[in-house]
Amino acid sequence: MALPKRIIKETERLLSDPAPGIQATPHEDNLRYFDVVMDGPSQSPFEGGKFKLELYLAEDYPLSPPKVRFLTKLYHPNIDKLGRICLDILKDKWSPALQIRTVLLSIQALLSAPNPDDPLANDVAEHYKTDEKA
């Protein structure tokens, strides 16, 4: 099945002009699947870390958001033990105007700025609220 032009264009841009600290590589056998490696943002607890994610574009992309999850385990109020990410643009705030690149940059920003008021991991959010430094 041929890929929509939009996915081809976005993929070419990700490869030719990657977002800083983010590599997204499509699988050869399924160009809707991407292996993502994201650097931990500077001045965050994740600085210096490398995080693996998988990103999948559903059949109805860009009408529905990409499915993204962390393969690397991390302790964060908006990421659960299965690597699922609680981020508004991956849910009800999705817009077809957004791109894979925007999504990945938003996830990277979430590492720097957790949102403990919309947690996926309640225990981590509670810990963050009571003892942010830890």
Automatic annotation (TrEMBL):
One of its GO terms (molecular function) is ATP binding. Gene3D superfamilies: Ubiquitin Conjugating Enzyme (3.10.110.10). Pfam families: UQ_con (PF00179). PROSITE patterns: UBC_1, UBC_2. The active site is at 86 (glycyl thioester intermediate). Keywords: ATP-binding, Nucleotide-binding, Transferase, Ubl conjugation pathway. It comes from the Eukaryota. InterPro entries: Ub_conjugating_enzyme, UBC, UBQ-conjugating_AS, UBQ-conjugating_enzyme/RWD. Residues 2-134 form the UBC core domain. Belongs to the ubiquitin-conjugating enzyme family. PANTHER family: UBIQUITIN-CONJUGATING ENZYME E2. This is Putative ubiquitin-conjugating enzyme E2.
